[in-house]
Amino acid sequence: MATSSQSEGGATFSAERYFATQPPPASLEHDVARVKEFVQRQLKEGRKVVLVTSGGTTVPLELNVVRFLDNFSAGTRGSTSAEYFLKAGYAVIFMHRQFSLQPFSRHYSHSTHPFLDFLDFDPSEDPSEASHIVVRPSERTQLVEVLTTYKAVQRAGTLLTLTFVTVNDYLWLLRAVSQEMSLLGRSCLYYLAAAVSDFFLPRQKMSEHKIQSGKGSLHIEMDQVPKILKPLVQEWTREGYIVSFKLETDPDLLIPKARQALARYGHQVVIGNDLHRRKFEVVFVSPKPKVSAGASAEDYEESWLRIDLAQNPQKEIEEDIVAELVKRHQQWIEAAGTQSALT
Ligand code: 9Z3
Questions:
Q1: 271 CB under 6 A from ligand 1?
Q2: Could you identify the atom of ligand 1 that is nearest to the CA of residue 193?
Q3: C-beta 230 within 6 A of ligand 1
Q4: Taking Cα atoms as reference points, which of 20, 67, 91, 325 lies closest to residue 212?
Q5: How many whole angstroms separate alpha carbon 18 and alpha carbon 95?
Q6: What element of type H or E holds 277?
Q7: Across-strand partners of 167?
């Protein structure tokens, strides 16, 4: 049986060293210009803005990439949540893995609900000369609902979509977007649902061409991706309300790892989810009010959120996750108002 092994002493990049040595993606400048314009417009219109990250990052093994490692995520959590944030009045920057699920079009995913299956020729016409295509009656109600919201969001200009593929694209984009969003102060929310690789191969160590077989087993030593939440919280967006996700497959690790992340980075919420239970159960872990440096386990509180899919199979847990966060974000904005009134 194959096993994985980890050795001590592999390089851990600080965020500073990472950005000094790894090149930015070619589309970065163009994306930043779009984000700038979007943020300015939302500022003028007084909207809260949420950055939703979604989908998995890849780690290429070659410069001319043939092989890569991938992180698990279809983009369901992110794309579904983005719709509920839009419904709650937020403007959404949706930063997702290319070809993963997106808000609205997710309802017509080619693998679970292919759109060709619900279109038909007009029965009154000869198909070979058809000039009209009709939607099957069973699909109309949902399509009208999705299309109406989609068109309204387009008209309002409240959804900006950005794309990443590699973990390098993701890190550069996250830094740039968060720096632009910091202008929004406490009105910005970060919802970091993307599944981000913990390990990567620095460009300087990558083979230029396709790794050749025929020389026995392949050994690759990867370096650790910098812990990006640290500069995000402490430098790039000091006032943003930051929610990260923690994915585990061992349920016993969920709460300790979530607490550890909060203690390390000092952000607002970690949402823990077990891989196999994530569609109906998550746990919100957050600091109790007034956690200081050197926090212990008693300084955090957990609240579980569960839905009953047997009772209501159409229910999406993201609806309740987003409702809870919208409430917490508002309280947090109001708490800052109270603090500044007191000083
Ligand atoms: C999550 O835990 C997401 O909820 C899922 C969503 C990836 C499980 P799907 O897109 O899945 O609905 O198929 N995302 C965060 C995963 C992650 O990489 N977290 C890092 C970690 O656990 C911290 S930021 O260490």
A1: no
A2: 14
A3: no
A4: 67
A5: 21
A6: none
A7: none
Q: Is the CB of 265 under 6 A from ligand 1?
A: no
The Cα–Cα gap between 332 and 268 comes to 10
State the Cα–Cα distance between residues 183 and 185, nearest whole angstrom.
Answer: 5
Using CA atoms, how far apart are residues 276 and 215, in angstroms rounded to an integer?
38
How far is the centre of ligand 1, averaged over its atoms, from the C-alpha of 132 (Å)?
Answer: 43
Instruction: Give the whole-angstrom CA distance, residue 224 versus residue 5.
Output: 14
The reply to whether ligand 1 has any atom less than 6 angstroms from the CB of 285 is: no
First-to-last alpha carbon distance for the chain, in angstroms, is 63
- pLDDT (tens digit per residue) in 70-119: 999 999 999 999 999 999 999 999 999 999 999 999 999 888 899 899 99
Q: Ligand 1: does its nearest atom lie under 6 Å from the Cβ of 192?
A: yes
Q: Which two tokens stand for residue 61?
A: 């093994």
60 beta partners = 68
Question: Can you tell me the distance from the alpha carbon of 308 to that of 46, in angstroms, rounded to the nearest whole number?
Answer: 36
**DSSP notation for 180-244:** HHGGGGGGEEEEE-SB--SEE--GGGSBSSPPP-SSSS-----EEPP-THHHIIIII-TT-EEEE
The encoded tokens of residue 139 equal 């699909």
Q: State pTM to two decimals.
A: 0.94
**Contact between 82 and 107 (Cβ < 8 Å):** no
Say how many Å lie between the CA of residue 77 and the centre of ligand 1: 8
Atom of ligand 1 nearest to the CA of 75: 10
Instruction: For residue 79, report the distance from its CA to the centre of ligand 1, in Å.
Output: 13
* Longest CA span, the chain: 76
Looking at ligand 1, which atom is closest to the CA of residue 246?
A: 22
97, HSE (Cβ side, Cα atoms, 13 Å): 27
Partners of 195 in the beta sheet? 56
Query: Which residue's CA is minimally distant from atom 23 of ligand 1?
Result: 246
pLDDT digits over 128-167, tens only? 888 889 999 999 999 999 999 999 999 999 999 999 999 9
The rounded Cα 328 to chain-centroid distance in angstroms is: 19
Q: For ligand 1, say whether the CB of 188 is within 6 Å of any of its atoms.
A: no
Domains of the chain: 15-114+157-210+220-342 (3.40.50.10300)
Residue with tokens 């030593």: 221
